[in-house]
Design goal:
Blueprint: H1 7-39, H2 45-68, H3 73-93, H4 98-127
């Protein structure tokens, strides 16, 4: 196992922070694509779906970077939570129950907030002070 001071761990921590910020931006873009589909052009709905499928890979990268970067267990757990929340998007969106389907949008807000929180907490570990 590599030490937290190993260059691979340091670069993984940087990768974690960059990936978290990218994921937060991707979630915001997803909300925009959903809005365009609902309020402007319904034929754009496949853009929302395909982009959503594509950004799922970022949740896997978060986990990989968290483990290789030897981040604190709290951040690894929160990265896992982001991964699980992403997985919940599918059952929410595909639900026949309207209230359950509406959780798709609420879950996106939670993912956005959690990813920003994770990025902010990991930033000092990647770029400076060793405090999470």
């Amino acid at each position: 196992m590599i030490s937290p001071t190993h260059p691979l761990a340091r670069w993984s921590r940087i990768g974690f922070v960059v990936t978290a910020w990218l994921y937060a931006l991707a979630v915001a873009a997803q909300v925009f694509l959903a809005g365009v589909s609902v309020f402007d052009d319904p034929t754009r709905w496949p853009d929302h779906v395909s982009f959503g499928q594509m950004i799922g890979s970022l949740t896997v990268l978060l986990l990989v970077f968290a483990v290789i970067g030897r981040l604190p267990w709290l951040l690894i757990g929160l990265a896992f939570a982001v991964f699980m929340l992403y997985g919940m998007q599918y059952p929410f969106a595909l639900s026949d129950n309207g209230s359950m389907a509406a959780l798709h949008a609420v879950n996106a807000l939670v993912m956005f907030w959690l990813t920003i929180t994770v990025a902010q907490r990991a930033q000092p570990l990647a770029f400076g002070a060793a405090r999470a």
